[in-house]
Amino acid sequence: MAEQFDVVIVGGGPGGYASALYAAAAGLSVALVERDRVGGTCLHRGCIPAKELLETASVRRTIAGAAAFGLDAGEPTIDFGITMKRKQKVIDGLWKGLQGLLKRRKVTTFAGTGTLGADGRVTVHVTDGPDQELRGDSVILAAGSLPRTIPGFDLDGRFVLTSDEVLGMTELPASAAVVGGGAIGCEFASMLADLGVQVSLLESLPKLLPGCDGDVAAVVRKSFEKRGIDVRTGVQVEGHDPGESTTTVRLGDGASLEVERVVVSVGRRPLSDSLGLDGTGVEVDDRGFVKVDQTCRTTRDGVWAVGDLVATPQLAHVGFAEGIVAVKDILGERPLPVQYDRVPWCIYCHPEVAFAGHSEESAKEAGHEVVVSTHHYRGNGRALIVGEPEGLVKIVAARRPDGGAGQILGVHMVGPWVTEQLGQGYLAVNWEATVDDVAELVQPHPTLSENFGEAVMALTGRGLHG
User: Fold this and answer.
1) Does residue 30 sit in the same domain as residue 135?
2) Alpha carbon distance 416, 412 (integer Å)
3) Which of 81, 98, 261, 340 has its CA 20 to 30 A from that of 456?
4) End-to-end distance of the chain based on CA atoms, in angstroms?
């Protein structure tokens, strides 16, 4: 006989465990099915380990540049074994904390692969035991995603790696080609270069960070090249020819590149094929994404889908937000849909990138007449103090009929710690604030966040330092 719950959730990553915690906080009985460990890709093979290694790279970069502050520490060396132990300690601490939180909320967890039956039941397939049957008044699918691969680069764990293998390396290669210049590819290229690896970054499109504002992407490229990263855009990769200890990457222009490792970083695909959806009434598109409406409802009554399983930005915090929307809909609370064109994005390469809302390019494509203000960190006192003056803040605002700047449409940042500075810009975009609204706010001095205030104030026609 199937065990009964108010909500059964398949997948324990950010979308799944956020759904579970929120539903339990609302007083619902919740079952959470996870094949591996709760926390999903983000905690175990994505966000957290990647940012931990990027922080290690930052520490090494800081030590290498300490002489500029009068502290000559010499050339730093790295014990990568200690680095990886520290990474795992951070992961394990967060994982244990999450397990404890789920237990305190009285969420019942099931270890195994969950599939959805035609009758709405969820079957938990256990590796070393009998299957378990669960029934929920509502079901939330949150199975997550896997790294995509590309033709000519079969994953072998030796020469060709995805993000999973990179984050589990036991030693650093001398050289690497990173295929894909999006957010993940730029993070890996930056991290490996700062750890002493000779890196080539290969992107098929004309610029790095497709979707980012062009001025922001240009700052990242200039910084990468200054640090010795071989950046190649508009280039196709056709395959590779393994040798004894290196492999030769074949490029579409007839050129080649010999490296020890190839890191394939071209996005992620949804894991909908693991859910047994045939015959359930849950539809998927031709890319494998589960079809949902604005409240994350699938095409089958009583079933919702969230996170990387649906065709929305593959960000942990988007999964959190979608889980909340789904649970609110289950509760009959008429939730506001996630505004995907305004969600905050953070990219942790060096220099960091953070943005929300329209870029200058996308605003114009959407038919807006815009006014733009750009303020550089080289004029910011705190940026000069910490020794990181490269980068800028760019505000994209709608042009008023009188020619002045009105509603803030987008905020784009590249530079020191901008992932921690985006908050006020994100709020401005989502609250549809005007330039005049935000210019009234007092910015603390000396801070990096002053740059945002200065860029907005300049749009009023009465800027102080720009």
Assistant:
1) yes
2) 13
3) 340
4) 70
Q: In Å, how far are 103, 248, 261, 423 from 245, measured between CA atoms? A: 48, 10, 9, 46
* CATH number for the domain harbouring residue 134: 3.50.50.60
Contact 142, 306 (CB under 8 A): yes
Partners of 259 in the beta sheet?
247
Q: Which domain holds residue 13?
A: 3-146+269-340
- Within 10 angstroms of residue 347's Cβ, the number of other Cβ atoms is 22
Active site residue 445: yes
Q: Is the peptide bond before 14 cis (omega within 30 degrees of 0)?
A: no
Cβ proximity of 389 and 460 under 8 Å: no
Burial of 404 (0-12, 13-18, 19+ CB in 10 A): middle
C-alpha 48/C-alpha 85 separation (Å) is 14
At position 314, the amino acid (one-letter code) is Q
**Considering Cα of 215, then 220, then 226, then 229, what sign does the dihedral take?**
negative
Q: Which residue has the tokens 């070393």?
A: 128
Per annotation, catalytic residue among 317, 358, 445, 465:
445
Do residue 135 and residue 183 come from a single domain? Answer: no
Asked if 307 contacts 319 with a C-beta cutoff of 8 angstroms, the reply is yes
> What is the tens place of the pLDDT at every residue in 442-460?
999 999 999 999 999 999 9
Question: Is 154 among the domain residues?
Answer: no
Residues 72 and 129 in one domain: yes
Residues in CB range of 435: below 8 A, 6 or more apart: 395, 397, 404, 405, 406, 407, 408, 456, 459, 460
Rounded to an integer, what distance in angstroms lies between the CA atom of residue 65 and that of residue 380?
20
Residue 20 in tokens: 């579970």
DSSP state of 13: S
pLDDT in tens, 20-71: 999 999 999 999 999 999 999 999 999 999 999 999 999 999 999 999 999 9
pLDDT for 466 beyond 70: no
Q: How far apart are CA 117 and CA 130, in angstroms?
A: 17
* Closest CA relative to residue 372, chosen from 402, 405, 403, 413: 405
